[in-house]
Amino acid sequence: MITECLVAEFDVEGDDCPLARATAEVDVAIDAEPPQLRGDGYVLLRFSAPATDALTAALDEDDDLRYLHVTQSDGTTNYRCLSKHPCVVHELVDAGFLVESMRYRRGGATMRGAVVGYDVLRGVMEAAGRTVGVTLRRVYPLRSDDREPIARRWDLTDAQEEAVRVAWGLGYFDLPRAVTASDVAAELGISKSAFLERLRRAQSSLFGSLFGGDPE
Q1: What percent of the chain stands above pLDDT 70?
Q2: Which of 124, 141, 158 is the last residue of a domain?
Q3: Could you tell me which of 30, 1, 27 has the C-alpha nearest to residue 17?
Q4: Strand, coil or helix: what is 7?
């Protein structure tokens, strides 16, 4: 039995997949769930981004995407579609990379996931070396208590988790605050009101999990 599980993060440049192309055209960050490769070669995609008509238009005009479905929620646009263009992450998955999250921005991507043991990591790195512009950002052991994503544990949406994580990292919760709400919103690429709305909803979910029930 393998007891060593590692978290690995990769940066990707030069991948000509639809989400990379869209973020090269529109300055917005896309957070994507792990793509699902079908037996017929099509890829099932599910991803989200701050609400912007420009991104939706860019995706809708891409001939590699089919059946684009768009919904709005909490200041975020959620997308589902089929893609005819597998991205380089499938090369890493075939080598043993358990992808957990992907973020596209300015034509590039950051992927985070797990590998079971250093032997598998070596195989993933060899696969990365055969693909376009894939570099290892960092690797570290998975903590024994890290069993599930924060968003799933505390019933947060991906957008809410990102808002809290970025705000924490920038010092928004420090006393005194190191940055303003406008600073955090700019880092997220959304409006100040959208950030504050996500933060309020995230805090409501967190406090509900801690204290139980809905606030009176």
Answers
A1: 87
A2: 141
A3: 30
A4: strand
Q: Give the Cα separation of 189 and 29 in Å (integer).
A: 7
Domain boundary among 96, 111, 141: 141
Q: Which distant-in-sequence residues (6+ apart) come within 8 Å of 212 by Cβ?
A: none
**How wide is the angle at C-alpha 166 spanned by C-alphas 165 and 170, nearest 5°?**
120
Helix (DSSP H) and strand (DSSP E) numbers for the chain: 8, 9
**pTM exceeding the 0.70 threshold for the entire prediction:** no
Residue 115 CB contacts under 8 Å (≥ 6 apart), including other chains: 5, 6, 8, 96, 97, 98, 121, 124
109 has which bridge partners? 12, 104
Record the tokens describing residue 10, joined without a space. 């990769």
Whether 216 is in a domain gets the answer no
CATH number at residue 185: 1.10.10
* Assigned token pair, 198: 């996500």
Distances (CA, A) of 128 to 88, 106, 138, 179: 8, 20, 14, 37
Beta bridge partners of 50: 76
Cα–chain-centroid distance for residue 96? Answer: 19
**pLDDT tens per residue across span 188-207:** 989 999 999 999 888 887 77
Q: Are residues 182 and 124 part of one domain?
A: no
